[in-house]
Design brief:
Order of helices and strands of chain A: EHEEEHEEEEHHH
Helix content of chain A: 25-40%
Strand content of chain B: 5-15%
Radius of gyration of chain B: 31 Å
CATH architecture of the largest domain in chain B: 3-Layer(aba) Sandwich
Largest sheet of chain A: 5 strands, mixed
Number of helices of chain B: 19
Distance between the termini of chain B: 54 Å
Strand content of chain A: 15-25%
Low-confidence stretches of chain A: none
Structural class of chain A: alpha/beta
CATH topology of the largest domain in chain B: Rossmann fold
Largest interface: A-B, 22 and 22 residues
Number of helices of chain A: 5
Oligomer: heterodimer
Structural class of chain B: alpha/beta
Helix content of chain B: 40-55%
CATH superfamily of the largest domain in chain B: P-loop containing nucleotide triphosphate hydrolases
Number of strands of chain A: 8
Radius of gyration of chain A: 15 Å
């Protein structure tokens, strides 16, 4: 991580409800002891739209996020309401550059089967922590309660916590310490 | 976490390779990629992946060809084929060629990770299984003897206790039960292990020859004694002398042996002075030595000298639980000696082994396994490989199952037996069975009977 990069930038990709974004930042701040900032973000993300799949490419969005990142941004997390995919998978809740700088998370599938806003926010925080965790080099955790556990269904997301288990937290602290954040 | 698991992703499309690589790395796997089947084959020896995810449709060497080559190099390496909807038929075909499973592009994330985790877990269990089996196999071994049967374990314990002593040992057991192996184990477990172990079969030699073999002779002791010769007892000085088939020796030799045991000295045939010796005697017999004493055919004083410690070896049919491990050992040994890749035994074969009488005991089992390995057409020993061997060897000339058999099974075995006895002469066999040629050919086909050389 670049020395002096002390900020996690949370940026909306396309339109997203402001309250949801604020709630997400609040949740992330509890887990990552860095300054969090919400930017205006990208209003138009049609460049990432794949007409054949009728989904948005997480790979393209990550590339774009990389280009808007500033020196002081340790990490950039894009947030979208659109359905995301990577070429090899049918869908993803989010995607990150492992030990990289950018991550993206989608609320599209997290909002399914429930109209409860609080439930959606909780899921979004969990996936936000999960994808940002990957940018800090964390891999999937076997502890099903840890935010870094791999979730392939909403029920599994609901089962896990919005924070890291002791082991993952220790790894995160080491990474934060060695990066000078 | 999963850093020890390496996955090789083979796809000609970079975007597919990279997105799968990134995604799998998030799950903790180490991922290497190849852009073609040929490149993947080149990477195998050095990268040694635990799993391959292989795209079916690639230019040059396609996935199917690559799969066949991979399976030639490492038949046990799991390969997941990747395909589009259009080629599911081909994907199923690849499973017949040994692919573990196939995934349709784009993958469903949960199915994919679950599949990979399942394979990884299976691989781990397989490794653990091999390790545990090897560990177990070693624990069933005492010196060169294999056995987990409680009677064998008692014998092993007894050997450990008596081996370090100077006590004479009498080993009793039927032919082929491993009497000499036991004697060798006693020798190796004793302080005499570095000294010679000398074995002699008393039944194989005439009385005079046995005498000169045992005691040696001086020059001129008899017409052909042109020079002096050391006897087996002398050769065993400091070590162990194994006298096999002791029940077959003559009354004179019984007396001579008794003197050796009592005086601990030996006089060569034609010699005039006795030589002091430190030899441990182990005698073995397949006869009822006590009964021979009662009948007056064996000296009771020699019997009591030999009878200090008695080890009774059970016949193989009384140690059924040892049959699978013994069979596995003999198959492995024989496969190594013959250079054949025979590694498995069908459960049906073991069932037959358990039901068979084994009149020749462990030696017969070893011989059947050796021949089955030679006859085996694949890497497995099947019922067809062993049926002619043990059916033909039963004392009564027929199979003696302990379980009740179906009529079909009895017919199959009977037809095979008739064919074997008639050297597969169809006409003769038809005559015995009182059926026509067409019927016999149909039965041979139905039961998958084969003529073996």
């Amino acid at each position: 991580m670049t020395p002096g990069a002390t900020r996690i930038l949370v940026t909306p990709l396309g339109s997203i409800e402001g309250g949801l974004l604020a709630g997400l930042v609040e949740g992330l701040e509890r887990m990552f002891p860095l300054r969090h900032m919400v930017t205006k973000g990208m209003a138009d993300i049609e460049f990432a739209y794949d007409a054949s799949r009728m989904q948005y490419s997480a790979v393209e969005l990550l590339k774009e996020l990389g280009s808007i990142r500033k020196e002081e941004d340790a990490k950039v997390l894009g947030v979208t309401e659109k359905d995301l995919f990577v070429p090899i998978l049918t869908f993803v809740y989010g995607q990150a550059q492992l030990e990289g700088r950018c991550a993206v998370v989608s609320s599209f599938r997290l909002a399914m089967h429930s109209s409860e806003r609080i439930l959606l926010l909780g899921r979004l925080i969990k996936e936000g922590v999960h994808e940002l965790g990957h940018t800090f080099g964390l891999i999937h955790c076997k502890n099903p309660l840890c935010a870094m556990s791999f979730s392939f269904s909403l029920s599994q997301i609901d089962m896990k916590e919005s924070f890291l288990c002791g082991a993952c937290k220790a790894v995160l602290e080491t990474r934060l310490g060695s990066s000078g954040c | 976490m999963l850093e020890d698991v390496k996955i090789l992703v083979v796809d000609d499309e970079e975007i597919m390779r990279e997105s799968l690589k990134c995604w799998l790395e998030e799950d903790g796997y180490s991922v290497v990629t190849a852009e073609s089947g040929l490149a993947a084959l080149d990477m195998l020896p050095a990268d040694k992946p635990n799993l391959i995810i292989l795209d079916l449709k690639m230019p040059g060497m396609n996935g199917m060809e690559a799969l066949k080559k991979i399976k030639q190099i490492d038949p046990k390496l799991p390969v997941i084929m990747v395909t589009a909807y259009a080629s599911i038929e081909t994907a199923i075909q690849t499973m017949k060629e040994g692919a573990y499973d196939y995934l349709i592009k784009p993958f469903n994330p949960d199915e994919t990770l679950m599949l990979i985790r399942k394979i990884v877990n299976q691989q781990r269990l397989l490794k653990e299984n091999i390790y545990l089996r090897e560990k177990l196999r070693k624990s069933y071994r005492f010196e060169n003897i294999i056995g987990k049967n409680h009677r064998m374990l008692e014998i092993f314990e007894m050997i450990k206790i008596v081996a370090p002593t100077k006590a004479t040992i009498l080993i009793q057991g039927a032919t082929g039960t491993g009497k000499e192996l036991i004697a060798r184990a006693v020798h190796r477990q004793s302080a005499r292990a570095s000294a010679p172990f000398v074995a002699i079969s008393c039944a194989a030699l005439t009385d005079t020859l046995l005498e000169s073999e045992l005691f040696g002779y001086e020059k001129g002791a008899f017409t052909d004694a042109k020079s002096s010769k050391m006897g087996k007892i002398e050769l065993a000085a400091g070590g162990t002398l194994f006298l096999d088939e002791i029940g077959d020796i003559s009354a004179k030799l019984q007396l001579d042996l008794l003197r050796v045991l009592q005086e601990k000295e030996v006089t060569r045939v034609g010699g005039s002075h006795a030589k002091k010796l430190d030899v441990r005697f182990i005698a073995a017999t397949n006869k009822d030595l006590g009964g021979l004493v009662d009948e007056g055919k064996f000296r009771d004083d020699l019997y009591y000298r030999l009878n200090v410690v008695v080890l009774n070896l059970p016949p193989l049919k009384e140690r059924l639980d040892d049959i699978p491990i013994l069979a596995e050992h003999f198959v492995k040994k024989s496969a190594m000696e013959t250079g054949k890749d025979v590694t498995e035994i069908d459960p049906g074969v073991l069932k037959l082994f358990m039901e068979y009488e084994w009149p020749g005991n462990v030696r017969e089992l070893e011989s059947v396994c050796e021949r089955a390995v030679i006859l085996a057409k694949s890497n497995r020993i099947t019922e067809a490989d062993i049926a002619p061997l043990i059916l033909a060897r039963d004392k009564q000339g027929r199979f003696k199952p302990t379980d009740l058999l179906s009529l079909g099974e009895i017919e199959k075995r009977h037809i095979l037996e008739v064919l074997l006895r008639n050297n597969w002469n169809i006409m003769k066999s038809c005559k015995v069975l009182r059926i026509n040629r067409v019927t016999l050919y149909n039965k041979i086909k139905k039961y998958g009977l084969e003529k073996r050389n």
